[in-house]
């Protein structure tokens, strides 16, 4: 079976010098799903079609046993400039969203339209990252603004090129943050820092973002692909189900009291001990050898 352009492996998943008109590029290599935003001419601003492709790829990664880690990155000089506002007039009632008709768009906005669009659009995208059952790495190659910043910060691990910047751009447009920003940022940097970022909308350099705890590691631009590959392939050789359960425990911990968190931990342990990887981990310890995990 021949591979489509979206599935052909590349030596460097961050290098897309050849022509490709897909809004999302995709490869799977060594157990890693590489999902690449590909609208560099608009700084990878996310249009509805691109958003739906991203969500579909994340859902597919969750269900595919051959995928054991995910990397989200982008072509060009920017990671993602946020939602594509030029698409807003025609997508305030997004035809890609079930139950939305062209007639309802033409008739003008009604109370509830904006909230519905946010729930079914930006919030679905961020939820797809948070709920993905595989560890997700953001390889931020440039500017990450608005929804683009939240897309990166929703990932489990964030790598940033030295040239990357993070901008809570909403206040500059007189807007309220969307895409889960007011949920994500306080959990990463605390409420006061989150308010500072959202109230002023100042751009953070990659180094500043690392000091705040928004970024795991800053690397030279030329080393971003290699570092992302190294981290992702290391995760892809790990105990996949244990990582998924650990991600779930950490993501829900700040929304739970101690009783609920401890109950969730016990349930996760019960589930994980039924996996082949858990048995391999125990057996390898007893046999004084390195474990070989198979993601099962």
TrEMBL record:
Basic and acidic residues bias spans: 1-19
Region annotation (Disordered) ranges: 1-25
CDD domains in alphabetical order: crotonase-like (cd06558)
Similarity field: Belongs to the enoyl-CoA hydratase/isomerase family.
Protein name stated in the entry: Enoyl-CoA hydratase-related protein
Species, as recorded: Streptomyces roseoverticillatus
């Amino acid at each position: 079976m021949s591979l489509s352009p979206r599935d052909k492996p590349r030596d460097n998943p961050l290098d897309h010098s050849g022509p490709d008109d897909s809004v999302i590029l995709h490869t799977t290599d060594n157990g890693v799903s590489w999902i690449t935003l590909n609208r560099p001419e608009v700084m990878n601003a996310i249009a509805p079609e691109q958003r739906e492709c991203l969500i579909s790829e994340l859902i597919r990664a969750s269900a595919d046993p051959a995928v054991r880690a995910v990397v989200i990155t982008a072509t060009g000089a920017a990671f993602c400039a946020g939602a594509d506002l030029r698409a807003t007039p025609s997508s305030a009632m997004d035809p890609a969203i079930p139950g939305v008709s062209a007639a309802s768009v033409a008739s003008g906005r009604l109370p509830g339209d904006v909230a519905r669009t946010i729930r079914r659009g930006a919030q679905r995208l961020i939820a797809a990252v948070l709920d993905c059952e595989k560890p997700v790495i953001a390889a931020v190659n440039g500017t990450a603004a608005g929804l683009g910043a939240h897309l990166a910060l929703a990932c489990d691990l964030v790598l940033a090129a030295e040239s990357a910047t993070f901008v809570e751009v909403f206040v500059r447009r007189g807007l309220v943050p969307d895409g889960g920003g007011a949920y994500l940022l306080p959990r990463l940097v605390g409420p006061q820092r989150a308010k500072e970022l959202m109230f002023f909308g100042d751009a953070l350099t990659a180094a500043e973002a690392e000091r705040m705890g928004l970024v795991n590691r800053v690397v030279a631009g030329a080393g971003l692909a290699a570092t992302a590959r190294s981290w992702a392939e290391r995760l892809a050789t790990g105990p996949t189900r244990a990582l998924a359960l650990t991600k779930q425990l950490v993501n829900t911990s700040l929304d739970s009291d101690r009783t609920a968190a401890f109950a969730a931990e016990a349930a996760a342990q019960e589930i994980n001990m039924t996996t082949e990887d858990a048995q391999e981990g125990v057996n390898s310890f007893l046999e004084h050898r390195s474990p070989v995990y198979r993601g099962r």
